Amino acid sequence: MALFNKSDMQYDDYKWTAYPDDDPKITGKPDSTKFNRHEGYEVLYLINKLAEVWELKQLVSCKKMEKLIIEKLPTDIIMQDAVKSWLSKNWNN
């Protein structure tokens, strides 16, 4: 079960375009796939996946990730694995 749900998201200007289940972009882990910070499903997926990988158990941690992605993530960071790395490095800033 996902820790972070659409109803928990703090920002409301996302696009919500669903990908088909067999879309090759969906690998099940953060990878070198392009990341669109304006696509709600992509943000939701990445936050939940990183919460799982990093063993985060509190909703506040997910909200912090969302805030960092929307407000602080540099625009030149566009791959999922780069977002993961950036979040890890900037978590305490």
Number of strands: 0
- Mean of residue pLDDT values: 89
C-alpha geometry = globular
Please work out how many helical segments DSSP would assign.
Answer: 3
Low-confidence stretches: none
List the helices and strands and how they pair.
Elements: H1 40-53, H2 59-72, H3 80-90
Short description:
With 93 residues, the chain is mostly helical.
Protein model, in words:
With 93 residues, this protein is mainly α. The chain has a domain at 32-93. It has helices spanning 40-53, 59-72, 80-90. The termini are far apart. The relative contact order is 0.21.
Descriptors for this entry?
93 residues
